[in-house]
Prior knowledge:
138 residues; 5-stranded antiparallel sheet; 5 helices; 20% strand
Amino acid sequence: xxxxxxxxxxxxxxxxxxxxxxxxxxxNNLAEEGRLTPAQEHxxxxxxxxxxxxxxxxxxxDPDVYDRDLHPGAASWFKSTSPHLxxxxxxxxxxxxxxxxxxxxxxxxxxxxxxxxxxxQVVVTPPRQPLRDPRHIP
Length: 138
């Protein structure tokens, strides 16, 4: 079985719900707030439509996959074997840069507990890590 690594693009700032929103949510939120220029809105609509046509939406397969009570912190990660999907994220990042919203590109071999998987992505809940006293350095 091949080893994949996973890629996620997310906000550098934690949301008030405690999690880091992904780039699609960030750009869609800007649109909902009416903050996109006409060109940015055209980009968003065109590229969202492309993703809708070429990429499975996990919540259409499992409506509970992003339920905050059932799966706290659930987040989507691209599989590295889907570069055609990852490459299109650059335009979303450009929109976010124009609005001075910093984002991170994360890479992981084990992004968390997999609750959904398809050929292009996984949805995971964050790994559980023991709490450590920040004053204690092992």
